[in-house]
Amino acid sequence: MAEPASLKVSVWRGGADGALARFEVPARENQTVLDVVTHIQRELDPSLAYRFACRVGMCGSCAMTVNGRARWTCRTHVRKVVGPDGALELRPLANLPVIRDLAADLTPFFEKWRRARGRFEPREAPDGAVPEDFAVVPPASRARREADAGIECIGCGVCYASCDVVAWNPDYLGPAALNRAWTLVNDVRDGARAERLDAVAGDAGCHSCHSTQSCTERCPKGLDPSSAIAGLKRTLFWDTLFGRR
Amino acid sequence: MDLRPRSHPTYLAFVVHRVSGLLLALFLPLHFWVLGTAITGEARLEGFLRWADNPLVKAAETVLVVLLAAHLAGGLRVLALEFLGWRSRQKDLVAASAGIALLAGLAFLLNVV
């Protein structure tokens, strides 16, 4: 496909009641969406607010809505998402308060990680003491494989912004927090399994998930939060049935 | 509603599962009413069944069979996802569910025509 000489970029400006502003950005080879935003901020309008740090898909801070879909912008090539006429529409992540322009406020997102008890709580040393020896965790064990499947989350918020249940129920913990909880439920070194399962069992927890699997479809790291949520549902079901909780 | 973030197979499977469930729930009262006529009056039931022989009703019945099969297959898909913990081949499961639903509809049509 012949690439257009310039990109017609619509960028969200302002807070929740803002509007789209148009910019013309030169098209370049191997250009990422983050490159486009940076060009606008450095060459066209220095007042544009957006967020990034590592530029290589590790920090999870540059996610935005690109042509209607939540994506990590530093590793999204323009040519993969641009319309035939060079149109690019950039908005802040959905389901989160807008601070300004392309910067969304991730406070509710991380607050829900806390509510889902997403912090590792060592079983051997609940008071913070260093355990006497290393825990032996066979890498091939079922629990460790389950934990490994979700452990690479970078907290970018793409799954959270793509989840309809979050939009319908603002209290819903969301895919990332539940995925984190599932990795810890499967961590044999963790000592807060019962409390964590309680934290994710309520109306705003895993049972609210409708399995649309948008989180899994959109996760830039290729993780599968939907299956993690299914794992939590399954564990709660059997634990409740057999009176283990 | 912006369809761009929702245009993927498992979202479509979710919508089909929900909508088929709702439509089946709407059909249920009619179903019970017909069953009721079997108790209250044989002639009335006979009349209804003769009316139900017209092609338009048969077409509607085919849609109903597809809805029922889609809801069943979609439900089994969700159960497999939640209870078996299958991580891979989710989209194949969606395709298989759709295939089962359409096959059921086709089998019904073959039986009718």
From TrEMBL, chain A:
<feature type="domain" description="2Fe-2S ferredoxin-type">
    <location>
        <begin position="7"/>
        <end position="94"/>
    </location>
</feature>
<dbReference type="InterPro" id="IPR012675">
    <property type="entry name" value="Beta-grasp_dom_sf"/>
</dbReference>
<dbReference type="InterPro" id="IPR001041">
    <property type="entry name" value="2Fe-2S_ferredoxin-type"/>
</dbReference>
<dbReference type="InterPro" id="IPR009051">
    <property type="entry name" value="Helical_ferredxn"/>
</dbReference>
<dbReference type="GO" id="GO:0006099">
    <property type="term" value="P:tricarboxylic acid cycle"/>
</dbReference>
<comment type="subunit">
    <text>Part of an enzyme complex containing four subunits: a flavoprotein, an iron-sulfur, cytochrome b-556, and a hydrophobic anchor protein.</text>
</comment>
<dbReference type="GO" id="GO:0046872">
    <property type="term" value="F:metal ion binding"/>
</dbReference>
<dbReference type="GO" id="GO:0051538">
    <property type="term" value="F:3 iron, 4 sulfur cluster binding"/>
</dbReference>
<dbReference type="InterPro" id="IPR050573">
    <property type="entry name" value="SDH/FRD_Iron-Sulfur"/>
</dbReference>
<keyword id="KW-0001">2Fe-2S</keyword>
<dbReference type="Pfam" id="PF13085">
    <property type="entry name" value="Fer2_3"/>
</dbReference>
<dbReference type="InterPro" id="IPR017896">
    <property type="entry name" value="4Fe4S_Fe-S-bd"/>
</dbReference>
<feature type="domain" description="4Fe-4S ferredoxin-type">
    <location>
        <begin position="143"/>
        <end position="173"/>
    </location>
</feature>
<dbReference type="InterPro" id="IPR036010">
    <property type="entry name" value="2Fe-2S_ferredoxin-like_sf"/>
</dbReference>
<dbReference type="InterPro" id="IPR025192">
    <property type="entry name" value="Succ_DH/fum_Rdtase_N"/>
</dbReference>
<keyword id="KW-0411">Iron-sulfur</keyword>
<comment type="similarity">
    <text>Belongs to the succinate dehydrogenase/fumarate reductase iron-sulfur protein family.</text>
</comment>
<keyword id="KW-0560">Oxidoreductase</keyword>
<dbReference type="Pfam" id="PF13534">
    <property type="entry name" value="Fer4_17"/>
</dbReference>
<dbReference type="GO" id="GO:0051537">
    <property type="term" value="F:2 iron, 2 sulfur cluster binding"/>
</dbReference>
<dbReference type="GO" id="GO:0009055">
    <property type="term" value="F:electron transfer activity"/>
</dbReference>
<keyword id="KW-0408">Iron</keyword>
Automatic annotation (TrEMBL), chain B:
<dbReference type="GO" id="GO:0046872">
    <property type="term" value="F:metal ion binding"/>
</dbReference>
<keyword id="KW-0408">Iron</keyword>
<dbReference type="GO" id="GO:0009055">
    <property type="term" value="F:electron transfer activity"/>
</dbReference>
<keyword id="KW-0812">Transmembrane</keyword>
<feature type="transmembrane region" description="Helical">
    <location>
        <begin position="12"/>
        <end position="39"/>
    </location>
</feature>
<keyword id="KW-0472">Membrane</keyword>
<comment type="subunit">
    <text>Part of an enzyme complex containing four subunits: a flavoprotein, an iron-sulfur protein, plus two membrane-anchoring proteins, SdhC and SdhD. The complex can form homotrimers.</text>
</comment>
<keyword id="KW-1133">Transmembrane helix</keyword>
<dbReference type="InterPro" id="IPR034804">
    <property type="entry name" value="SQR/QFR_C/D"/>
</dbReference>
<dbReference type="GO" id="GO:0016020">
    <property type="term" value="C:membrane"/>
</dbReference>
<keyword id="KW-0479">Metal-binding</keyword>
<keyword id="KW-0349">Heme</keyword>
<dbReference type="GO" id="GO:0006099">
    <property type="term" value="P:tricarboxylic acid cycle"/>
</dbReference>
<dbReference type="Pfam" id="PF01127">
    <property type="entry name" value="Sdh_cyt"/>
</dbReference>
<comment type="function">
    <text>Membrane-anchoring subunit of succinate dehydrogenase (SDH).</text>
</comment>
<protein>
    <recommendedName>
        <fullName>Succinate dehydrogenase cytochrome b556 subunit</fullName>
    </recommendedName>
</protein>
<dbReference type="InterPro" id="IPR039023">
    <property type="entry name" value="SdhC_prok"/>
</dbReference>
<dbReference type="InterPro" id="IPR000701">
    <property type="entry name" value="SuccDH_FuR_B_TM-su"/>
</dbReference>
<feature type="transmembrane region" description="Helical">
    <location>
        <begin position="93"/>
        <end position="112"/>
    </location>
</feature>
<dbReference type="InterPro" id="IPR014314">
    <property type="entry name" value="Succ_DH_cytb556"/>
</dbReference>
<feature type="transmembrane region" description="Helical">
    <location>
        <begin position="59"/>
        <end position="81"/>
    </location>
</feature>
<comment type="similarity">
    <text>Belongs to the cytochrome b560 family.</text>
</comment>
